[in-house]
Specification:
flat, 25 helices, Alpha-Beta Plaits, 51% helix, alpha+beta, 4-stranded antiparallel β-sheet, 12% strand
Amino acid sequence: MAELLLELFSEDIPARMQARAADDLKRLVTERLAAAGLSFGRAEAHATPRRLALVVDGLPLRTADLTEERKGPRVGAPEAALQGFLRAAGLTGLDQCEQRDLSASGGKGVFWFAVTCKPGRATAELLIEAIPACLTGLPWAKSMRWAGGGFRWVRPLHSVLALFDGKPLAGRFDLGGGQEPLGFGNTTRGHRFLAPAPFAVTGFADYRDRLEQAYVVLDREERKTKILDGATALAAEERLALAPDDGLLDEVAGLVEWPVVLIGSIDEKFMGVPPEVLITSMRTHQKYFATLRQDGSLAPRFVVVANMVTADGGAAVVAGNQRVLRARLSDAKFFWDQDRKLTLASRVSALKDITFHAKLGTVAEKVERVEALAVELAGLIGADPTLAGRAAHLAKADLVTGMVGEFPELQGVMGRYYALEDHEPAAVAQAVADHYKPLGPGDTCPAAPVSVAVALADKIDTLVGFWFVGEKPTGSKDPFALRRAALGVIRIVLENGLRLGLSAVFFAALDRLMTAAHLHGILERMDEAERLLDLGVSTATVGEVQAQLVRAVVPLSALDFHRDRGLAFHPEHQARARAVCDDLLAFFADRLKVALREKGIRHDLIDAVFALGGEDDLVRLLARVTALQGFLATEDGADLLTAYRRAANIVRIEARKDGCAYDDAPLPDQLEQDEEIALAEALAALQATAAGLLKREDFSGCMAALAGLRRPVDAFFERVTVNCEKDTLRKNRLRLLSQIRATLDQIADFSRIEG
């Protein structure tokens, strides 16, 4: 068995692409090996800023010989059949074939067989063909050409190290465009500055060890460990803790081949700037790790990871990084000082100059809608409507500040600081910061009532707005992050236990969108009427047109959240509003399955409850689904589901055969056997009991009542013949079976339940 060692040495590969590229290289090569019939033991890929490496051991030196057999005609068959067989097998005469008697194995006589042997190939030959194909097929998010060549890669490729069984493969890679091909070799290079001279290797173990001697840590996880351990130790020496940042650790590990961890200082004059600003500036621009005091506050120290060993122990590196950081933080402090010269409220008017979406108007228009919706939501969830409205009014104002212009990821965060500087109530300031949350599955949800109201209003306005203008997610494309917004609404509702009817909230948001769209259309037509004057149309005619337009402004009333009543949308908008709401609820059902999957909630049960219609209270839905899942996990539940399917199948088959439905209640005077009488009584009792339990939202009690149906159902199927000879009795029993389906479907659509 032999080992393959492959290294692709290039200019610096972007850190975010390295791990994926190493995995892709491993996949492409191992797929080629498997397709050639080559088995192997271990396949291990590595990446550093300047190289992708792959080792595959346990490879045979040659592929196995293959023997192929082709059965031909019977001995004595017509000449035409024999010649056709020889041509198909690639043979010239029957002397190259053998005869086999198949009588003992059930065959009928003696047949010709063509047996051909294909000798195996040297693995080295296969690799010489496979490696260039793998290099060409390596997918990159971005790639480039260089030196006039035709080959595209992430960065200019300098060399290909390809060793098999300790010897360099006699292959090469054509870069195209008249460039000199890269011949496969056995040499590589170490650190760009500390060990730039090429050196030869004999195998993976030698390669890894020689790289380490040349100041290159090949293993990515080992580099991460060295960085983390070194940074933690340096922080601990100053009685500080390293601020956790797994994303930055991953990125920095892809920027250095020989990590040297150093610690520097932040000037005290910058410590009055909000810590999020300092951390973001250090992280985004300089790739520095922040440190924390024991109380969790930001410490005036940062950790930098160099890619260089210096004679002064890194003093010059630290000094240089401190100098660069001072310039960065000076800019941040400037924005902080300048932004506070204007109140957050005074910036709201500037939002009219920012387009939210071409079909949905400006950010200022969105703020107006969110403000109104937040006030109404506040009344439902126990938040202060005045504070919710104020927070929504200010929520987007920090978008026009200098700080957020420089650091867009701080939107909301800076709004909170500026609101506190303006002496806004703490709940308002916190809601400004929280209204974007949750930004992902790892982010926290807002919990304060005012924050919840504004966060929900913002997300629901966005979802309803994009549905209203037909900009829904398609396939894997979701440019406006609408799936994330829906998951955010679901998490906020469930984690805070909010009893909201989503349909009502959607209609309230739609009401304002449609009102705005309706009035906007009227105003545009008013402007057109004014332009008629310039075309010589009489004043009286223009006045009449304007009067007609004024009469067309039909108030589109807002939804009354506190009473169940019909919506007073303008008639031309009702159908569209209903379609948008229904489609959006279906979208939420799909997102709910995703959100609850990690909690072990079955997606088919969510479908079964949603299919009943009219269920848009997520808290109630989850309680019903959880109770249903628990019931179906019991023996009674599993048996009752089986009985439901049996009853539904019988009714469906007989109804199709008879050309009629059996949805009516069974006739009591046609119930003959004790078992069918008992079942009818049990169903009637359950219907009455279930209705009361469902109204009280006692879903566990409802499932317990369902369990009581198992015994009469089992007895019915055991002793009663449904398709009996007496037709009136048969039809009555079919109606009774139909009642099983109707009764259970009060709780959920059991036809949608799997398994």
